[in-house]
Specification:
Elements (H helix, E strand, L loop, with lengths): L1 H27 L15 E8 L3 E13 L4 E6 L2 H10 L6 E4 L5 E3 L2 E3 L11 E6 L2 E11 L2 E8 L4 E7 L4 E8 L5 E11 L5 E16 L6 E7 L10 E9 L5 E7 L5 E7 L4 E9 L3 E10 L4 E15 L1
Antiparallel strand pairs: 1-2, 1-12, 2-3, 3-4, 5-6, 7-8, 8-9, 9-10, 10-11, 11-12, 13-20, 14-19, 15-18, 15-20, 16-17, 16-19
């Protein structure tokens, strides 16, 4: 009898263990009770931003407006430099309009459901962001935060954590198909009643091209400024130039309007390794881009966007 009882007890424990294992994933998935936050003007989140182009920088994302009629928050940044970088590099998807209902962000004028409230382990959904089409899944939780992992059709990957206590992202990372960092943001502090200047530049890409040497003669390209799709003229252009002139390479770059007036001119000597981010006045026109390059490893990466500046003093 003792042997039979022991055998039954062991079988019962074994079965019980299997049942608990099946429920373990649900039990382990725990997120903070605040699912969808209600932001207020002046709420802010201090992040460390990391990009392949610019390294690390620190700035605050700030709620600047609540447009109840449109169902929108406006989210700006405390660094004008970071606002300019986003305008031309397009690395921070969380600036500008954010929907009140589900914190969807905008890409190419359309709402994108980056967050999937209420958080449930195993939920899957799709959206477009950073020029990529993503398939996302809530894969688990960490320290009370929902963890989302996403992959794009071209092999890019994202992971981000939503912090219900602080009402926004705690961590966000975007890698390309070669597992190279494109953008990372890490929350370091948060608060409300922000006082200071805040910017958001609503931008339209005009040209993004990489030139590699050696070039026989001169390469020309064109781009047209017909204003923002909303019909508003740009306040200025934001441009970014990444230059590498190793092994004795040299180069020139110029941008001219339709009658030949130069709005931007640069000359690069041998050994130049530089990055430049700046603004220049805008005017609706057709422009010609002219580039020369010598040296087999020389390169010039030129990007320019038209920007409409939004500025707040809170």
């Amino acid at each position: 009898m003792r042997a039979i009882f022991a055998a039954l007890l062991m079988a019962s424990l074994s079965l019980s263990g299997c049942i608990n294992t099946g429920d373990e994933s649900d039990e382990d998935f725990e997120v903070d009770s605040v699912e969808k936050p209600g932001w207020q003007i002046g709420d802010w989140w201090l992040y460390t931003f990391e990009t392949a182009q610019f390294g690390e920088d620190t700035a605050r994302l700030v709620v600047t407006e609540i447009r109840d009629d449109d169902g929108l928050y406006m989210l700006g940044i405390s660094s004008e430099r970071e606002a300019q970088r986003h305008a031309v590099i397009n690395h921070n998807p969380f600036l500008g309009r954010v929907t009140i209902d589900d914190l969807s962000v905008y890409e190419n004028g359309d709402q994108q459901p980056v967050f999937n409230f209420p958080w449930t382990a195993g939920d899957t959904w799709e959206f477009t962001l950073l020029g990529e089409y993503w398939s996302a899944e809530t894969t688990g939780s960490t320290n009370g935060m929902a963890v989302v992992e996403a992959t794009s059709e071209s092999g890019h990957s994202m992971e981000y954590h939503f912090d219900g206590n602080h009402g926004f992202i705690d961590y966000f990372e975007w890698m390309n198909e070669d597992d190279e960092l494109q953008f990372r943001m890490t929350l370091t502090n948060t608060g409300n009643d922000y006082n200071g200047d805040v910017w958001f530049i609503r931008a339209t890409d005009l040209k993004d091209r990489v030139f590699e040497g050696p070039i026989d003669g001169e390469i020309t390209d064109t781009f047209v400024d017909s204003g923002h799709p909303s019909g508003i003229d740009f306040n200025y252009y934001v441009f970014y130039i990444d230059v590498a002139m190793p092994q004795g390479g040299t180069g020139t770059l110029s941008v001219k309007d339709h009658v030949g007036n130069s709005i931007l001119t640069r000359t690069y000597t041998a050994g130049t390794q530089s990055q430049e981010l700046a603004t220049i006045p805008s005017r609706t026109d057709e422009y010609t881009l002219e580039v020369t390059l010598t040296g087999g490893q020389s390169s010039i990466h030129f990007m320019i966007a038209g920007g409409i500046e939004n500025y707040w003093e809170l």
